[in-house]
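Handout, page 2. Input:
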Amino acid sequence: MTDLDPEDQKLLTLARSARARNGVAEGAAVRDETGRTYVAGTVELASLKLSAVQTAVAMAVASGAKGLEAAAVVTAGETPAEADLAVVRDLGGAGAPLLLAGTDGVLRVRVEA
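Output:
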């Protein structure tokens, strides 16, 4: 899986950078309907646990995004979490893909949420 749109590759690069910079389990990036990007890592507090995708989508919504074009997550996991697919569907509808890459940044799975 190497034929990525440059904008989708940018999302993977941003997600990988967020994971490395913050030393968290996952990094994610989403692109809203206007082309703006939001980057986040996993949130793990005693009272709040959010995946990186959930955090990035929440940031987009808090900034006024009305829809998503795409989402990306960099993780050690092999498949997207159902909760991540659900939150991408909530804001992106049926057409927004969720790209999942390994910690090396190589795309493993593309799911049309």
